[in-house]
Write the structure tokens for this entry.
Amino acid sequence: MNRKLALLLAAATAALAALPFAANAQTSAAPPAGFTMTTGTPRTSEQTSVKFDHADLSFRLFPEEKRLDGVAELTFTATAPFEWMQLELDDAFAISAIAMDAEEIHPDDGWRNDNGRLSIDLAGVEAGQTFRLRIAYSGKPHEAKNAPWDGGFVWGTTPNGKPWIATAVQGEGCDLFWPCIDHPQGEPDRVDLHITVPAGLGAPSNGRFVGKSDNADGTTTWNWSARQPDTYAIALNVGPYVEMADDYRSRFGNVVPMRFWRLETAPADRAAALFAEFPKMLDFYEATIGPFPFGDEKMGVVETPHLGMEHQTINAYGNAYKLDGKGYDWLLQHELAHEWFGNQMTNADWDDMWLHEGFGTYMQPLYARWLNGDRYMEAELVDMRKTLANRFPLVSGRSQDSGTVYNGETGPGLDLYYKGALVAHTLRLLIGDEAFFRSLRRLVYDTADPRPGNFRPVYRTTRDYIRIVSEEAGRDMGWFFRTYVYQAELPRLELSREGDRAVLSWSRTAGDFPLPVEVEVDGRLTDLDMVSGRAAFDAPAGSHILIDPHNKVLRHLDFIEAFKARNASN
């Protein structure tokens, strides 16, 4: 499917809603039923009182039964004293054993799993204490109805009848298949994965490959190690894969392994053509933003039985090698963007998700320009402009979960992508390329001069970005974000005439809005500074006035609204 249809399906199939619950699971009621089907609800006080050091995750998959056996060994260091630990794990799984530092904890009075909130009595831990929890569980994980939008496990088969399995849990969270802190700020410092599957199948996953072992029972265990993966970006992928390998020699002097796991039934020529796009896209991103964040691990892509998802160093690809006339594979390019906007830089709260999706989406028209020039960039931006709903602001200013922000009935929905990209474009043209791209580097790397080895993954908020942009622009830019990001409605330009003079005014703004505008009067271009939100200019009676001839500003346009209304009624 093409990108527009894919994202429209996301809006059509979104069914998640905000699920409020009390902050302390031990002393308050259990979270509501369906709690595990969203992600990003506020962390408990205990969850904010630990550093998540390490997750060692073992999975055995049984494709015929659509079943998973798991053992999670989770290491934490307490930053404050507490009694009970809360984790999230879908209660579809039966927990067979829990132990703390090898000492078994009994379920009668030592732990319980209430609607997916797993509470464990640690008998008290002190600040600075490191402890390990071992949780063994099994069951049939939630099966996705329409991945990746309605996520979970996809139990598919290849064209030649072999198992083809994938996880996609962005909207629902990591707790659909492993016990975790299901929040953007719940990232472990390191994750080791051990994935056991029937012999003859591959299991590419996050991070570095650290070997495989063939077992006596006719299975193979694949082992991987990843640093600081985004919680929803940890992924299982199983199938009869053929691995394609090459190295990318970075403009920053390091060498990045490139890997593509295609199905054995995939057309080899199309897979080779897609693989040839990898170094071109990496070069664009490194020139535009900075070093590939996980160059010491890999740039990895795996063919999946769903459209796609930004799984860290193992992006899911299910676009069937389609061409749409843009000169590149949009899905590959978009998911790769999230290695910078999502995995290296992670939103601190789902309310800031436009930092992932808006900038990640803006990379596609920028790449179109990189390859083929301004006309192709502008064509993509025009298509984006037609989709905006403007029903909810991109950022509400309060903590949100995934279900709220991705559902167009309760939050910005697809505006996260397209409006976010158009806001980024307007900002770039306002402050200039140098300030704009420096602001992105600082947002992503926390430094304006990133080099391999001198940065770590960061959490970011919209407030962080406003501060960075203001510093790079040399003036307070809060007014720009108050109208474009914290307000749902787009600003309007109102034109009036006074004899041989005309006045252009901004309206429907969130306070002062000194956004400059160009006007063209009978072919003559004039720059209006709009310092007070309005400006007068010469326009003899009968002259033709064209507002914003180069389409630099995002604003309400009557003809776009008429187009959307007509299409909605058909």
